[in-house]
Write a structure and sequence with these properties.
Structural class: mainly beta
Shape: globular
Helix content: under 10%
Strand content: over 45%
Order of helices and strands: EEEEEEEEEEE
Largest sheet: 7 strands, mixed
Distance between the termini: 39 Å
Radius of gyration: 13 Å
Length: 130
């Protein structure tokens, strides 16, 4: 069974940092691009960042650019999202999802069209509050 499991969320003060992890179970991430999405209370889910299957090229939305880093460890079948200088508006449930690596080996997929993504995790809660 193909699964993605997110972890690393929690309660953090404004200005703090978190590293979210997305681990694949039942398959290898070698041939998949990945993205992080988030859904804040009362809002639609939105894309945050993505990384190519090769694990080199990345994409960030403006709201997290400069504060976040996405990395991919194919050996560990895990993708990470390091988030720094966290703000209250970063509070959300964070999800990871896979996209077909044959289409996105060198370039990261966009994060505006969720139909690009096949396997989704259940999410991890990030709360930024003092």
């Amino acid at each position: 069974q193909l699964q993605l499991v997110e972890s690393g969320g929690g309660l953090v003060q404004p200005g703090g940092s978190l590293r979210l992890s997305c681990a694949a179970s039942g398959f290898s991430l070698d041939h998949y691009a990945l993205a992080w999405f988030r859904q804040a209370p009362g809002k639609e889910r939105e894309g945050v960042s993505s990384i190519s299957a090769r694990g080199v090229s990345t994409h960030y939305v403006d709201s997290v650019k400069g504060r976040s880093t996405i990395t991919k460890d194919n050996a560990e079948s895990t993708v990470y999202l390091q988030m720094n200088s966290l703000k209250a508006e970063d509070t959300a449930v964070y999800f990871c999802a896979t996209a077909d690596g044959s289409s996105w080996y060198y370039q990261p997929p966009g994060v505006t069209n969720e139909y690009e993504y096949d396997v989704w995790g259940r999410g991890t809660q990030v709360t930024v509050s003092s």
